[in-house]
Amino acid sequence: MKKGLIVISGLCFALLFIACNTTKTKGAGIKGQGSTIDTGKRVMIDYQGGTFGSEIPEWVKLVADGQYSEKVLSKSMPGVEEKKVFVVTNRGNKLNYIEQWTDLVKIETEVAGIMERIAVKSVEATMSGSDNEDLQETIKMYRESLSSVRLSGLEKVASYWTKNKIVDDDGETIETFYEYYAVWGMDKKLFNNQLKEALKRIDETATDTAALKEKIMEDLMDSVSDGSITDAYQY
Known about the structure:
The protein has 235 residues and is of the alpha+beta class. The chain has one domain (27-231). The protein contains 7 helices and 8 strands; from the N terminus they run ββββααβαααββααβ. The strands form 2 sheets. Strands 2-3-6-7-5-8 form a 6-stranded mixed beta sheet. A two-stranded antiparallel sheet has the order 1-4. Helix 4 runs antiparallel to helix 5 and helix 4 (107-126) packs across helix 7 (207-223). The chain is elongated and about 65 Å long. The two termini are 14 Å apart. The relative contact order is 0.22. This is Putative small secreted protein.
């Protein structure tokens, strides 16, 4: 899947999304009546745990608002402290297909794609004004090194789903779809070690090459932790 994604597991109730079922997670204060939440043109007609009158977890609202960092999510989601955090989301017409697709696709492949894009931007910024041929060769070198990265140690921390519809001014349904969210985490030290291993092949004998490699490593370690992978793929 070359686009990206956002994940969330299905059909378990709202707060059973961490491995330990005694874990307490903070609610967002949002709870529908009969699993329906009317927000105007967009109506949530069902959500994970809605049958039992459960609150929507606060981390789901944070993710929906585009807040993906470990620092933010850890306040309402036990299990992501001191981890590299990746948010995966998806949207489609059939919940079981979305779940299967997002769970079967190798998330490390998508993370590698994020790292590749960050590295390219870092190279372009650092080598601004350089000979174009040198720039393209350097970009190619980093792309090849990072595109093959397969991270081990990624674990899904939490997942959630909602079912929504869009209505027109007359209240007629225009579209119905599921949204699927998941948060994945990875030990920071393990992530950094695997990243260093992936970049080992890059020559750093020249001073400027070593400096560029160090800058890219810093950008990757700082940026990827807040990475989000999104995809509005229709099934």
